[in-house]
Automatic annotation (TrEMBL):
Membrane spanning stretches: none
Listed Pfam families: BLH_phosphatase (PF04273), Pyr_redox_2 (PF07992)
Beta-lactamase hydrolase-like protein phosphatase-like domain residues: 5-107
Record-given protein name: TIGR01244 family phosphatase
Domain FAD/NAD(P)-binding, first and last residues per copy: 135-255
Length: 540
């Protein structure tokens, strides 16, 4: 059991075992709440069994079950009544997310219902909690997904009152960081100030979101400001969890440890590649989901290509440690990639997840399973270590009522509409849609979201759908790319006919697309609401 304290008196965790009840009793817990329906999955311990053991330990129990994304007002009220007089409460569900969400919802409900004691207190409350500012559409996140959707909405209806909420100063063309790490681009070319890219006609609030109240159509910001909306678009991106690997955060940018997943580190990758003449280079990939699943390999291929062309590769031992079981998730592209694995003499290690980095001693440690099925740790030395961190939805999203049990915004993968709240929409890396988390996916999603939101505003049936399209330009060498384009289920969805560009093979045309065409296409097209080649597909 991984117990997470929300307050000193309230904690949450994943599904409890009977032994966990003993642990909680020893910690002084007086009330256990289960927010998970019985029989939600095979082999799940029944609430009655936990309640029986808890009773023997003198711990009260309550069962307030709801499925992910389906918390009701009655659930919140029952929760408030249950915890009102409790001193030390622990709640659990499958992952702890629902128990966190209902606690936050309870705090919001109690705050909204609390009467002021006198006129001076009322004035103070009004000052600290101003009335909500209303918008037609509130967009949370001003990354690729948020800005593209806002721009596409304004192309359809320029009079919309749209608010973009994002605390960042800068906006980045992140697909360019692979080429920064390969010595092709300069990092500065991938950056713009946020003010430069916010669509004209929208309001940009440079603030962070604190919480969501979708039942009330409200968003609370960290500065206390309240927003209300007719429609909400959640495009908050993904969190790079550097802390998931022991010792990694303090090692980044020194001791040969780098990552193209960060703007300030991609130049260090190229510096290391140029300096390395012999030794051991290690490249890692964590468990899915991650954004741009091919990026860890792209860094490796471009590095190897440089060493190959400088006649250094025979003196460099290259290893790829992948937590997954295959080189790439869509099998049609694997043969071409394997050709380069062989050309660059890469030692591939599947089922190996990076868990620790010792920067000063240049050692990396991977969790894996040995031939006997036992969990073990494998250690390797390195002179250069390129890391892709584990990734999750941002904390303020994972602790919201908008997510599924795994912590991703719960949507219909085709319409991009929320599974429970019909005026909430989500796209990009933050959703539970099974598509690849790439910029190319957003390029197709944004027009779908914009079209369906306008239909919903007009009380018409939503009829645009997203086919799962994603693209991963796999830079196997400088001057050639395997242009992987696919949709839901790994279905190939090539943009070009095979006679012009066979995406399963490395081509120069795909390199020209990546290096020369896509960056201006991004800045001057996507972010301006131009839907070139991505008009939404409509159901008849």
């Amino acid at each position: 059991m991984q117990r997470k304290h929300i307050t000193e008196q309230y904690s949450v965790s994943e599904q409890l075992t009977l032994n966990d009840v003993d642990t909680l009793a020893a910690a002084g817990v007086t009330l256990i709440i289960c927010n998970r329906p019985d029989n939600e999955e095979s082999g799940q311990l029944a609430f009655a069994d936990i309640a029986a053991v808890a009773k023997d330990k003198g711990i009260a129990t309550a069962h307030i079950p709801f499925s992910g994304g389906q918390m009701t007002e009655d659930d919140i009220k029952a929760f408030i009544g249950t915890i009102q007089d409790a001193e030390n409460v622990h709640a659990f569900c499958r992952t702890g997310n629902r128990s966190t969400q209902i606690w936050q919802a309870a705090q919001d409900m109690m705050a909204a219902q609390a009467p002021a004691k006198d006129t001076s207190e009322q004035a103070n409350v009004a000052e600290n909690n101003p009335p909500a500012t209303h918008y037609d559409v509130v967009v949370v996140g001003a990354g690729t997904a948020g800005i593209s959707t806002a721009a596409s909405l304004l192309k359809r209806k320029a009079s919309l009152k749209i608010c973009l909420v994002d605390p960042a100063d800068s906006h980045f063309y992140q697909p360019g960081w692979t080429l920064v790490g390969g010595g092709v681009f300069k990092a500065a070319s991938t950056r713009r100030t946020m003010a430069e890219v916010i669509p004209k006609g929208t309001t940009w609030l440079k603030e962070a979101v604190k919480s969501f109240a979708p039942e009330q159509n409200r968003v609370s910001l960290e500065n206390g400001q309240q927003l209300s909306y007719d429609h909400l678009v959640v495009a908050a991106g993904i969190k790079l969890n550097w802390d998931s690997v022991e010792g990694l955060k303090e090692s980044l940018g020194r001791n040969g440890v780098t990552s193209n997943y960060r703007y300030d580190l991609a130049p260090y990758t190229w510096e290391l590649v140029q300096k390395l003449g012999k030794g051991k280079a290690v490249f890692t990939q964590p468990p899915m989901p991650i954004k741009c699943a091919g990026a860890p390999q792209k860094a490796m291929y471009l590095s190897c290509d440089h060493w190959f062309k400088k006649d250094k590769l025979n003196n460099i031992d290259v290893s790829f440690f992948n937590a997954g079981a295959v080189l790439f998730g869509v099998k049609d592209y694997v043969p071409s990639l394997e050709t380069y694995i062989e050309k660059y003499q890469v030692d591939t290690n599947f089922g190996h997840n990076l868990v620790k980095v010792d920067g000063p001693n240049q050692r990396a440690y991977f969790a894996t399973t040995d031939q006997n099925g036992e969990q073990t740790i494998v250690e390797t030395e390195f002179d250069m270590l390129h890391v892709c961190p584990a990734q999750t939805a941002p904390d303020f999203i994972r602790n919201s009522p908008l997510v599924d049990d795994a912590g991703w915004v719960d949507i219909d993968k085709e319409t991009l509409q929320h599974a429970s709240f019909k005026n909430v929409w989500s796209l990009g890396d933050v959703t539970n849609s099974p598509n690849a988390k790439t910029m190319a996916a957003v390029r197709k999603q944004a027009p779908v979201a914009a079209h369906n939101i306008l239909k919903a505003m007009q009380n018409q049936d939503i009829n645009a759908y997203y086919d799962g399209y994603g693209s991963c330009p796999l830079t196997v060498e400088r001057g050639k790319i395997v242009l992987a384009e696919f949709g839901f289920g790994g279905k190939l969805l090539p943009t070009f006919p095979a006679w012009l560009n066979d995406g399963t093979k490395p081509t120069y045309l795909a390199w020209v697309l990546k290096e020369d065409l896509l960056p201006p296409f991004y800045w001057r097209g996507m972010l301006k609401g131009h839907e070139w080649f991505v008009k939404p597909q409509l159901r008849k």
